TrEMBL record:
GO terms for biological process: proteolysis. Residues 1-17 form the signal peptide. Keywords: Membrane, Signal, Transmembrane, Transmembrane helix. It comes from the Eukaryota. Belongs to the peptidase C1 family. This is Cathepsin L. Residues 101-358 form the Peptidase C1A papain C-terminal domain. It comes from Hexamita inflata. GO terms for molecular function: cysteine-type peptidase activity. Pfam families: Peptidase_C1 (PF00112). Gene3D superfamilies: Cysteine proteinases. The keyword Ribonucleoprotein does not apply. InterPro entries: Papain-like_cys_pep_sf (IPR038765), Peptidase_C1A (IPR013128), Peptidase_C1A_C (IPR000668).
């Protein structure tokens, strides 16, 4: 219903001219008109007319993406300090893989992931990935009475981070990386802020940023919060970072062990920071309706990671193993701002980067999954139903099916062959007739 209502609100009909449609689009989404944006809109409106889909607020935006900073200096000489503002700094994995995980996880239905947000024209996807990870971390954290404020559902302010992050990490809406962003946040911020204090409005705050004016936290000092633990940086024992590296070698895709590790984190309720390539697939992505699994080939030699997102679940969609990807293109894009990509296919290069943060009070030695509650499946943007049972490592659902079905089939064939042989034996044996006359 959400998808239909947006299209109706704009009153845009696929039979009308592009100029008429663009005029309605501008009014509907409160856009500024320009020749460039109209050209982009008209090209995508033709796709809408041909293939159907959804009139979305991103239809007039064509970003010039920059590659994310590739990991360097992994093997530093002992005693040489890393500059974590131009190098990926992360800790080694600190959580042991779970021996059993859920067949499927959806952090949205578990109440651990807030709705998708809209980054707009600002290249701030990395900040939205950061806030998504921290919002989930807050929901997993235990608070005493003095900080019960955080037990309520809270949206973290992206604008607070955007406006207060300086240096080589970014130049306001020009892109960066969440790993570098977390390093800056950990070293320079006292706390996160809530959206109700600083709503996201990049243009409104641009002049303040250019004058290097800091946005002060408005929450009470006793509520100040950095919702993560910190660990020793891999390759530099003198530094700390909140970022745990699960897979940061973007020259390789996730192995089966990495997939299990990511699923273990998600089964614990912990979201995953991820990255993807969108530069050559913007038209396809723009009209994606979120109902199907999106599989777009990744050219590992030519396509770099240019956009950061969050993995908030896994399971099966339309019978296919998938990741649930949370984007920052607004709740009207795709499936309420989320999409499904196949596991093991590296669709749009989504299986080349995976990091996480650990909630402040999380027990690092815990081997228990998070209680996800009751599944609420069946919707067009939901995972397929499953029986909710746990799966052992190496015993994924498809393998369980093989283990169960194959012996049954073999036994069935054996029984069939046995009775067939008996029948053939009976037919080949002469029949004895009990009669007083015998042939000699």
């Amino acid at each position: 219903m959400l998808l239909i209502s947006v299209a109706l609100a704009c009153s845009i009909n696929p039979t009308e001219t592009c100029s008429d449609a663009y005029e309605k689009f501008v009014k509907c989404f409160n856009k500024e008109q320009s020749e460039e944006s109209q050209t982009i809109f008209c090209r995508r409106f033709q796709l809408y007319q041909k293939h159907g889909g959804l009139i979305q607020p991103m239809m007039d935006i064509e970003r010039e993406y920059r590659p994310l900073r590739k990991e360097r200096n992994v093997h530093q000489k002992q005693g040489v300090s890393l500059n974590c503002q131009n190098t990926y700094c992360h800790a080694s994995n600190v959580l042991k893989d779970l021996s059993k995980i859920y067949q499927s996880v959806d952090l949205r239905e578990a109440g651990l992931s807030n709705p998708a947000q809209q980054q707009g024209n600002c290249e701030s996807c990395w900040i939205f990935a950061m806030t998504s990870l921290m919002e989930t971390s807050i929901k997993l954290q235990k608070f005493d009475n003095s900080q019960s404020f955080w037990t309520l559902t809270k949206d973290i302010s992206e604008q607070f981070i955007l406006s207060n992050t300086f240096g080589s990490v970014q130049e306001y809406c020009t892109g960066s990386d969440l790993m570098i962003g977390f390093d800056y946040f950990n070293k320079n911020f006292q706390t996160v802020e809530v959206k109700e204090n600083y709503d996201y409005s990049p243009e409104a705050y641009r002049s303040r940023y250019q004058s290097h004016t800091i946005l002060p936290p408005l929450i009470e000092p006793n509520l100040f919060l950095k919702p993560f633990q910190t660990f020793t940086v891999f390759g530099d024992s003198a530094q700390k970072t909140p970022v745990v590296g699960i897979h940061v070698d973007d020259d390789e895709i996730f192995s089966k062990n990495t997939v299990w590790t990511i699923k273990s984190y998600l089964s614990r309720g912990i979201a995953i920071g991820a990255a993807m390539h969108t530069g050559s697939n913007q038209d396809t992505l723009n009209k994606h309706d979120g109902r199907t699994v999106l599989n777009i080939k990744c050219d590992m030699q030519r396509q770099y990671l240019d956009h950061q997102v969050t993995i908030v679940g896994y399971g099966r969609k339309n019978g296919q193993d998938v990741w649930i990807i949370k984007n920052s293109w607004g709740p009207t894009w795709a499936g309420n701002g989320h999409m499904f990509v196949p596991i093991g296919e590296n669709s749009m290069c989504t299986e080349r980067y995976a990091v996480a943060i650990i909630p402040k009070t999380y027990d690092l030695f815990s081997t228990k999954p998070y209680d996800m509650g009751t599944h609420q499946r069946g919707g067009q943007f939901d995972l397929d139903h499953d029986n909710g049972k746990m799966v052992k490592k190496g015993m994924e659902p498809w393998l369980l099916a093989v283990i169960i079905v194959v012996p049954i089939v073999v036994i069935g064939i054996a029984i069939g062959v046995f009775f067939m042989c008996r029948q053939m034996k009976r037919k080949s044996t002469p029949t004895t007739i009990n009669s007083p006359m015998e042939y000699q």
